[in-house]
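ugh finaly. both done.
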Amino acid sequence: MVPVYSYVLSTAEFGTADIYMTVLNLLVPIVSLSIFDAIFRYAINNTKENSVEYFETGITFSFIASAVFIILGVIFTFVFKQSIVNNVVLIATVIFQVFLSALQQFAKAVNRVSAFSVSAILYTLSYLLGNILFLVVFRFGITGYLVSYMLAGVISVSYLCLAILPQEFKGIRFTFTLKRLKEMLGYCVPLIPNAVLLWIITASNRFFLLHYCGVESNGIYAVANKIPLVLSLFTSVFFQAWQISAIDETKEKNNDFSARIINGLVSMSAIGSSAILLLSKFVVDNFFNEQYATSSEYIPFLLLGVVFQCFASFYGTIYIAYKKTTAVMTTSAVAAIISVIGNVVLMPKYGVQAACFTTMISFFVMWIIRMVHTRKIYHVRVNLPLLIVSCLLICIQAVLRITVASELLQILCSFATVAIVLFFNRELFSQLFKKRKGEANENN
């Protein structure tokens, strides 16, 4: 939808819409106290009776928190005389995101992965439909952009309620056990500062951009930031599997499984990043409105930031598996401090590129700290030659994209990256080939 946004929204409008979404991403964990993370952690691998108690406690708490948020949101809107329509839509979207997160985490915890997947598909289709109706057809601008998110939340929450609750509950009770609530909050409350710190790393630079460069620059940055998220789409497949499996595998000290996951993540990130870097300028030049043409030069550092964030998230899951949420918060705090200092120091001189660079450096530092520190808890055997060479090639290609216009060098780097990944994973591909060959012989 980004090419569509570039034609129906000006840089200033898209910059403002992005600020709304930035605020939304901050409000969801704060309003809910990240209770949805506790629902997953305590409902997984538990008895059905206990899982139900944890879910009922979490969902009832979410209703109470949402009621308080509505009151505070209405007061804020009228006291500060904000846009009533946009704020009402934002408040509703936050509430539906809270319940969607709770229901999706519970679905994964009780092994209803198909329902989780269908809800994600419905969310995407509803969001696309909302964009077409409210942005392209009715031209509602920023309000239409926000309503699309709200519509997607409403439909996905409704589906999960119909798909899961009748089968998992004889009759849901909106009540909670104080013992369970205390246990859940003790786990998830340290994750709230972590969510805020991650927000500082990934989103606070929008406000620095507004201050130093203006809302139009924030619109350019917002569009550039959408392209690297394509990589997140594919790596999220790994994290869905890893999040569900990490609790069992780390307790059983199954190093082989975790090694395959991280090495697969490195390989996918290397090939995906190389492809995105190779195609990004072509996509921006040919599919985006010309007012967003400069966004291509900001993609490389943002893409590296996504890669390092993926690596950091992998090790963050180990903390979650061992319930060491304080360590998650501490490592995020270091990265957040680097992000703020980098934006303050570099942005007055380097503008949008400073926001991209500080995001990359922040996640790189977070990844390194977590990789070193988690060895004391659970050691993951990483293929270091693959990791180092892949990261170097991606960094070289990113720098070339910013400094050199030669497409030939970009193509050579991309082929080199693919060749390196194939070389270091030759045993895996050999095993897959032998397996396929064996199955073919059996069928014959």
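ok and the 2nd:
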Amino acid sequence: MSQIIKRLHRFFIFSTICYLLLTPLITFLEATQEKIFILPIKGVIDLGLSGFVKRVVKEAKKENVSLVIVEIDTFGGRLDAVGEIVKSLEELKPIPTKAFISAEAWSAGALISLACEEIYMSPGSSIGSAEPRAIGMGVEEEVKDEKTISALRAKFKATAEANKHNPKLAEAFVDKDVELKFVSIENKNYILTSEEIEEKRKELGEEKIKVIKTITEKGKLLNLTAEEAKELGLAKEIVSNRKSLLTLLNLEKEEIFEPKPTWSENLVRFLTHPIVSSLLLTLGFLGIIFEIKIPGWGLAGTLGVISLALFFWGHYLVGLANWTEILLFTLAVILIFLEIFVIPGFGIAGISGGILLLVSIFLALIKHPLHTPKIELLQAFQVVVYSFFATLVIILLSINLFPKTGLWRKIILQERETQEGGYTTIDLTQENLIGKIGKTITPLRPTGKADFSGKIFDVIAEGEFVEKDKEIEVVSVEGNRIIVKLKEDA
């Protein structure tokens, strides 16, 4: 027994010594091994993507990575979203960042590229075309607001200067009024504006200024291919793919991490996509309109509320909607419910609810109502208008086409009231019908026919549908509308 204890004691001492000796070595090896983060910027740039970038930046700083490679393939997106992405990349410093443009880096993608310290491009890729445009439902409109263009131009210039890229190229990405030429002065190449060239000619003489080529003419937006970007010094090198870039940087043997968006981040990006947002609004508007036209509460209203709830939930998670918009939306729904269930007709409650609903939706599409560029306000306005337009088109089509379908014939009474059938016009104001008990002679879905003491009337069921041959009671008479409900003991 003592021999076993001695052996265990020796083994314990040996293990402790090995641990004390190997731990610093392992720590040193881990510290010397570089960690590379690959940050994908792909598809439409929205606030869902900016949230993903923020998370990756926090992870990169926590893991003490040695380099972040930003892979870019995008046609652009929201100005507020790209502003947050650029801010996150700035917070990465002193961790170096390199942009790899695998396809397109247009509009907001160009600004993200300029926010990196070095730019690499693949063959056939391009960068530029950053003029602000309002995009909605597949329609693009040029924004000519000088204030917006000037602010965006200044942002591009400042970002380029901060990362030692040519600021003139950055400005030409945004502003059509910038004209640039590639010139040679005393065997050195420069990128100059037309005004700067004239000043140099006056200073040095005509013969010392040689214009190699025009980079961009006035009135045209600058967009550079990979070869042009390298020639002008914007792109450091052209590489075929990520593997080639890692080989060029001598990083092919380093530890590579590529964070992926979580399912919740993907869901939020899906819900806040401009087309999906418009679709959710259209379904919400249709559901509420159909529910107002049909007494009671049914499938249309439920789908409408669910669609609008998904719209607000997605925009709340990305920071667009806050409790103000949600409270306005809730109050709007309550007012609409009161109009449907409590107050007959469509009056002040319904109109107020509709107005509050529109206001809450509009505010949920913009992040800072008092400090939002006109382009973002225009885009939010377009989403609401296009959704209303789509709702109107669907309603008009349903009025003209749906009554001809077999489904309509099954759910809506098709009989016609004729004098031959014993129907006559009666002034309901002369009939004391309130409280009378009758019997349905057709199903009430919610409209139908009922017999009261041998007289046939058109009636509307209050609440749920009523089957044929059921006893009903008149609740109220509003003009020619007779509102009935199922007799309690029927």
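summary for the 2nd one i guess: Residues 179-217 form one domain.
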